[in-house]
From TrEMBL:
Belongs to the TfdA dioxygenase family. Its cofactor is Fe(2+). Gene3D superfamilies: Clavaminate synthase-like (3.60.130.10). GO terms for molecular function: 2-oxoglutarate-dependent dioxygenase activity; metal ion binding. SUPFAM superfamilies: Clavaminate synthase-like. This is TauD/TfdA-like domain-containing protein. Residues 87-351 form the TauD/TfdA-like domain. InterPro entries: AtsK-like (IPR051323), TauD-like_sf (IPR042098), TauD/TfdA-like (IPR003819). It holds the Pfam family TauD. Keywords: Dioxygenase, Iron, Metal-binding, Oxidoreductase.
Length: 376
């Protein structure tokens, strides 16, 4: 299915502007090699919707999602045989594949990569020669590409967003005490009716020191809970909000409001069939059916399970031209701003939307499915 376009005839907007910051040299080389037209300014800034109702209309229609990982060879023989090396970075989360170019993967290898991401949560590839167009093409293998209504994009390549802290600082200045932006635990696009599946971030320029990204496993966070506590949250739903606020057309003086969706607290991945905790501090608002004090207490504990257990996390040191592909259905992540803008960082991101989140009571945990030590 083609990406959902934003109909300009129904959207009240703030007009886009051109940004003329200095692109890092390696980023410019990559974009020019890909024949990206930079003459009109970079990045392209779409006109911003003003009203909540318009944003909610963008993707209201149900889309069938068939996860490529569900049809993959469990042994991943085509992918692994072609790689020079496959290295698990921690026991529970994170794998690096050496010696493969993402742009050259066959269909069978893409399916197997999808399953590997579903099992290991995030997979890394260094020294990638990949254009924004090729990045988008790979993303389309994993689902409909999300076209955000207001974030910066690569000119002429809808759905390839620009991750550039220097640009972000022109609107919201970061500081050591309040780095903001992606420097908080979050999961992408939880407000969507069918939220994000696989996200691919390619960083063509990174600081020489710092700027690491940390991911935490939703499978393992769920497994950290006692079996009796799991019974409390299994089947419960929570309200998840958008990162960006909008005005209510019916009550514009009420102040900014967020797009909200209701999804399961615990979801099941369609390729692995494993249960994962699915909450994040930035965008999970409240548990449906509980009083605020009860909801705050439980959510606060669940956030800390994710954030404080370092054995279920992987911290990745970027190098130039590195790609990370992670599954938003089973992870949260946090980008460190410890370099404090002293060096440039620039990348492009593509996110494939997945299924409507679902829960199955009889689904196993990851440890149960893999026959690991019993849980007590």
């Amino acid at each position: 299915m083609a990406p959902t376009a934003i109909d300009p005839t129904i959207v009240d907007v703030v007009q886009p502007k051109k940004d003329n910051l200095n692109l890092p040299s390696e980023s410019r080389k990559r974009l020019e090699k890909a024949d990206i037209d930079l003459s009109g300014g970079y990045p392209y800034r779409p006109a911003k919707p003003l009203y909540l109702q318009d944003v909610q209309k963008i993707r209201e229609t149900y889309r069938e999602h068939n996860d490529p990982g569900a049809r993959a060879d469990p042994a991943k023989s085509a992918l692994f045989a072609a790689a020079e090396k496959v290295v698990d970075l921690t026991t529970h989360i994170g794998t690096e594949i050496v010696g493969l170019q993402l742009k050259d993967l066959t269909g069978r290898q893409k399916d197997e990569l999808g399953l590997l991401i579903a099992e290991r949560s995030v997979v890394f590839f260094r020294d990638q020669d990949i254009s924004p167009q090729q990045q988008k093409s790979l993303g389309e293998w994993y689902g409909e590409i999300e076209i955000h209504p207001q974030v910066p994009q690569v000119p002429g390549v809808d759905g390839v967003t620009v991750i550039w802290p220097e640009l972000q600082a022109t609107e919201s200045k970061a500081s050591f005490r309040r780095p903001g932006g992606a420097s908080r635990w979050h999961t992408d696009l939880v407000h969507e009716k069918q939220p994000a599946g696989v996200t691919h971030l390619h960083n063509d320029t990174v600081p020489t020191t710092g700027g690491d990204t940390v991911w935490a496993s939703g499978y393992s966070a769920y497994e950290k809970l006692s079996p009796d506590f799991r019974k409390i949250i299994d089947g419960k739903k929570a309200v998840y909000r958008s990162a960006h606020p909008y005005l209510d057309r019916d009550d514009p003086t009420a102040g900014p409001k967020y797009v909200e969706r209701t999804h399961p607290l615990v979801r099941v991945h369609p390729a692995t069939g494993w249960k994962a905790l699915w909450v994040n501090r930035a965008m999970t608002e409240r548990i449906v059916g509980l009083d605020k004090a009860e909801s705050d207490l439980i959510l606060g504990y669940l956030f800390e399970v994710f954030e404080k257990n370092i054995d279920i996390q992987v911290r990745f040191k970027w190098t130039p031209r590195t790609s990370a592909l992670w599954d938003n259905r089973i992870t949260i992540h946090n980008a460190s701003w410890d370099y404090e803008g002293t060096q440039p960082r620039h990348g492009t991101r593509v996110t494939a939307l997945a299924e409507v989140p679902f829960f199955k009571d009889d689904a196993p945990t990851r440890r149960q499915a893999l026959g690991l030590a019993t849980e007590d």
